[in-house]
Design the sequence.
């Protein structure tokens, strides 16, 4: 069956329907990863977005459910050049098409994803309208695209109740803002007892458990929308407990300490983004997924200083907080998908907690 993708600038792409048949409006973003489509689909940071995979063949190794980064798929839609009809992998249990059907995710294949990606790079992220109806009302589609905005997604993707991953080492409180599993897993594999808290948890409740460290996770949407969470993070900042924050958590900590964030033209999404450690000069290849960034010029040097920068565009990729055992990064040291170059940051966090005890 034919499917149609209309962008808010009037560009129309015609392809074939994949997944379920559903009409929707979403924010269209692109990911440059060559592998890891299942981790992308199950990353809560994509809630409210339709994902374009720039690699031309997707689905060739099927679905290995052990690689899922959450319990469900979060993007509104998947957009690919070609969805592989055959899959081959000794760990695979099903095709990507069957997974999309199960998860209720629609999509489109057979379009020129290079042209679509270039359009998003040149003109910035746009909303799009996806349908299988050849006689769709263009004016109604444009109206719906103008009205659409990604909102309320942190509350939608966070866990509903706290849970514990047992360990014999440091006790880490993780504030789930739309967390990828491998963040908690990376801590747990290092011996930490990990307690994962829902995004609406009050700082006082977390601090009352006297954790050795606090982790603020990744998550979807505009950081400025999370005003109640920012207030609680401000209280966590005021404590003397070591804090490590990733992606959305990085942005929320910046906002909580008086800095500003802005929406990027088309964001960073993929497993091949170079970031530079400003202290050592060393460059790491990182996994990233974000459409907002911290405005470095808004940092108060008495409170925080840049720690990492993006080699491609110079945007901020990390912050170190003065007089505090707090550091935050925009990229994903837990990867999945992506390189493991910066996984050492979890060890740095553990060392911070050890130093606190000394």
Sequence:
């Amino acid at each position: 069956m034919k499917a149609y993708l209309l962008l808010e600038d009037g560009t129309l792409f015609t392809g074939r329907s994949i997944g379920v048949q559903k009409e929707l409006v979403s924010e269209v973003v692109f990911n440059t990863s060559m592998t890891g489509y299942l981790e992308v689909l199950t990353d809560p940071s994509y809630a409210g977005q339709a994902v374009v995979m720039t690699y031309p063949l997707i689905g060739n190794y099927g679905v290995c459910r052990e690689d899922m980064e959450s319990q469900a798929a979060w993007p509104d839609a998947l957009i690919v050049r070609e969805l592989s009809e055959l899959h081959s992998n000794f760990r695979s249990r099903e095709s990507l098409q069957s997974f999309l059907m199960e998860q209720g995710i629609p999509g489109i294949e057979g379009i020129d994803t290079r042209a679509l990606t270039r359009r998003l790079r040149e003109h910035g992220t746009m909303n799009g309208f996806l349908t299988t109806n050849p006689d769709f009302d263009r004016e109604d589609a444009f109206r719906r695209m103008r009205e659409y905005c990604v909102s309320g997604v942190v509350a939608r993707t966070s866990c509903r109740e706290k849970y514990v991953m047992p360990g014999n080492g440091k006790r880490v409180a993780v504030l789930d803002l739309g967390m990828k599993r491998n963040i908690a897993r990376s801590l747990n594999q290092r011996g930490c007892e990990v307690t994962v808290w829902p995004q609406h948890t009050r700082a006082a409740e977390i601090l009352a458990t006297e954790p050795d460290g606090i982790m603020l996770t990744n998550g979807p949407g505009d950081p400025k929308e999370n005003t109640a969470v920012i207030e609680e993070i401000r209280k966590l900042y005021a404590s003397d407990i070591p804090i490590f924050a990733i992606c959305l958590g990085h942005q929320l900590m910046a906002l909580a300490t008086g800095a500003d964030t802005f929406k990027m033209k088309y964001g960073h999404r993929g497993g091949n983004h170079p970031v530079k450690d400003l202290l050592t000069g060393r460059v790491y290849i990182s996994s990233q997924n974000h459409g907002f960034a911290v405005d470095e010029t808004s940092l108060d040097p008495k409170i925080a200083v840049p720690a990492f920068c993006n080699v491609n565009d110079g945007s901020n990729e990390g912050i170190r907080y003065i007089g505090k055992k707090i550091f935050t990064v925009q990229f994903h040291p837990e990867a999945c998908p992506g390189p493991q170059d910066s996984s050492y940051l979890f060890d740095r966090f553990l060392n911070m907690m050890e130093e606190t005890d000394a």
